[in-house]
User: Fold this.
Amino acid sequence: MTLLLLGGAWLPPQGSTAQENPLALGVAALGLAVFSAGFLAQLSIGFFGRPRFFLPRPFRDVKPDVPTAPAFVPRVKGNMTEISVRRDEADSYAQLRRYKVYVDGERVGDLRPGETCQRAASPGMHSVQVKISWCSSPPLSVGVSEGERQELVCRAVPGVESDPMAMFIRRHDLLTLRRA
Assistant:
């Protein structure tokens, strides 16, 4: 923005040609280019959660280091064994975006504020994690018995919405996940 204003201040008066001061025209053009790149980065953060053309894509097939557990079983009508994750409706971080819910490294659903993701699970220990863009919660180990339902609540750490560096400093604990 400074370059744009500086270039504008150096522009020749109205009626004269740009050939009289090509440096001013170059500085104004550079300022406009820098301003446009910043504007596109802000739009990209708003829609995708990260500036897509500045940072590399996150690793897609990387699984968290958690003990392996039996895979999910289909939902049964009798004794339901289930893991339920609810996003706190008072969570003010990234309200227009969804948190992704992972159980044992497998994506099982998305959450907007106030929504709940339920998934049938086999009895035993499971690792549950919530992610948004490149930020996540620490994995939470959850033990589920036959016919039991574990309810969890997720939200962003209080204060991160006003801290512009939080998504870089607190990358692996930006979100919290706790038992309800």
About this structure: Strands lie at 82-87, 99-103, 106-111, 116-120, 124-132, 135-136, 140-144, 149-156, 175-179. The two ends are 47 Å apart (CA to CA).
